[in-house]
Design a protein that fits this description.
By secondary structure, the chain is an alpha/beta fold. It contains 26 helices and 11 strands.
Length: 454
């Protein structure tokens, strides 16, 4: 037994028992075909943000895989010693990029979280908040819209100004106070204000569905609008199925696989019945979740095949435009921009050069490469809410690599945008954090303005 394994054995032998894998009927337990291929080579260690912060073996990818395997073999109970490393993981998938054996750590972590929440449901106020948002609000667009309206009232009525002036935000934890300061203005959800079908400008090349998202369509509806404008300008008819739901990523990350599966089935039905050629996504975390529906529903006899058909249609907006063609903008900007690789875009979907190509195609835009651009920013869904201390440390490291002499920090995920905006706020920088498709949309608008004036 290696030294690292001895340490892990010591950790779980001292922990209080909870549920044994040998006498508990698990739903979707971690797949042996996935954890058995790990050879504990250590190539993943330097890629793991939590291991770099703690130096602890059980907070590394191979350590977590070892614990997952130990539970499967009945050597370890599902208890606090198992729960902590499994949920402290960011699920950023950087270890998957580094792993020569191709261990699917992300899928293992999500399945293990399902085990934990079956055996150890959240209780008290944490359990109440978890159920309220992940089961009671996010899956229902009407409730999300109401939440958005409340946020809009708070921001526009003068209440936000009063709250800030009186220092009432000081009663909140520091990370929540920072998040309130960087929240963008709530807009009008496109799923509520746009027609179901938005026609293409000129001849129609393809009919594409757009996942509008949950938080995305409430807090970042302007990005959804920019995405629609870019797609229709390039000859793509955009379909907005009204029956679509939250992608389920947040629920799955939290160990609520039951709700995640329910949302997956609803999205599959909504988009496949819409008859679209592709399903375009502008949020990296959502896109990664959609592409893993076939894995999530692998034991569902009714939806297994439909899930595979669905997955084959899913494309990130940057890759879709790059692969299917788009009008090169003529509107010129004199801007220096840098690009952050969202984990679930770079590591989860293998999309790296396409967003950079989009930015480089805009006249006057100088793309300044960020060192370690594909390291996690600490957002990781709601990780910056559930693990603010670790998320803050990871953000501090990330900001060290963000160039100082750029005007824009671009990326393809809303969670990363909020997290990086907090980093900019903390350091007192004068930089804007924007979505990649927004920059392309601005260039198109400037092109149109020049044509109209000319």
């Amino acid at each position: 037994m290696s030294i690292s394994e001895q340490r892990l054995e010591g950790i779980h032998s001292q922990a209080p028992p909870c549920h044994s894998a040998s006498n508990y009927l698990w739903e979707d337990p971690p797949d042996e075909d996935k954890f058995s291929v790990c050879v504990h080579c250590g190539m993943c260690l330097e890629a793991c943000p939590t291991y770099l912060q703690t130096g602890q073996e059980h907070q590394s990818p191979r350590g977590r895989v070892h614990l997952i395997k130990a539970v499967a073999q009945g050597k370890l109970e599902v208890n606090e010693a198992f729960e902590d490393p499994v949920f402290t993981c960011l699920d950023c998938r950087a270890c998957e990029t580094a792993c020569p054996a191709g261990v699917q750590v992300g899928a293992l972590i999500e399945q293990a979280r399902g085990q934990v929440r079956q055996a150890m449901p959240l209780k008290g106020w944490k359990g109440w908040l978890n159920r309220l948002f992940l089961r009671g609000i996010f899956p229902y667009s009407s409730r999300l819209y109401l939440l958005g309206q409340l946020l809009k009232f708070y921001q526009k009525s003068g209440l936000q100004h009063v709250v800030r002036k009186l220092g009432l935000l000081k009663i909140l934890p520091a990370h929540l106070e920072e998040m309130e300061k960087v929240l963008p203005p709530a807009g009008k959800p496109v799923l509520k204000t746009y027609p179901t079908v938005v026609p293409a400008q000129g001849p129609t090349k393809q009919r594409v569905g757009l996942l509008t998202g949950c938080v995305m369509d409430v807090v970042f509806s302007d990005i959804n609008e920019a995405t629609i404008r870019v797609l229709t300008r390039n000859g793509y008819e955009v379909v907005l199925p009204k029956e679509q739901k939250c992608c389920g990523a947040l629920q799955i990350h939290a160990g609520d696989r039951e709700t995640g599966k329910k949302l997956a089935r609803q999205n599959i039905d909504a988009f496949l019945s819409a008859g679209v050629d592709k399903i375009v996504v502008n949020a990296a975390g959502c896109g990664c979740a959609l592409k893993e529906y076939a894995e999530l529903l692998r034991n569902d006899k009714e939806y297994k095949t439909k899930a595979q058909v669905f997955v084959e249609k899913v494309e990130d907006i940057s890759k879709f435009l790059h692969d299917n063609g788009y009008e090169k903008p003529t509107g010129e900007f004199n801007l220096r921009v840098t690009y952050h690789d969202a984990c679930h875009l770079a590591h989860g979907q293998g999309i790296r050069f396409e967003p950079r190509k989009l930015l480089q195609s805009i006249p006057g835009v100088e793309v300044v490469e960020m060192t370690n651009a594909d390291t996690c920013c600490g957002s990781a869904g709601i990780y910056n809410l559930t693990h603010p201390d670790m998320a803050g440390k990871i953000l501090t490291e990330k900001m060290k690599h963000v160039p100082q002499d750029v005007e824009l920090i671009t990326m393809g995920n809303p969670g990363c945008m909020l997290q990086m905006a907090m980093g900019v706020l903390r350091e007192g920088r004068n930089q804007r954090v924007v979505h990649t498709v927004e920059v392309l949309d601005w260039a198109y608008q400037q092109s149109s303005a020049r044509q109209d004036s000319g």
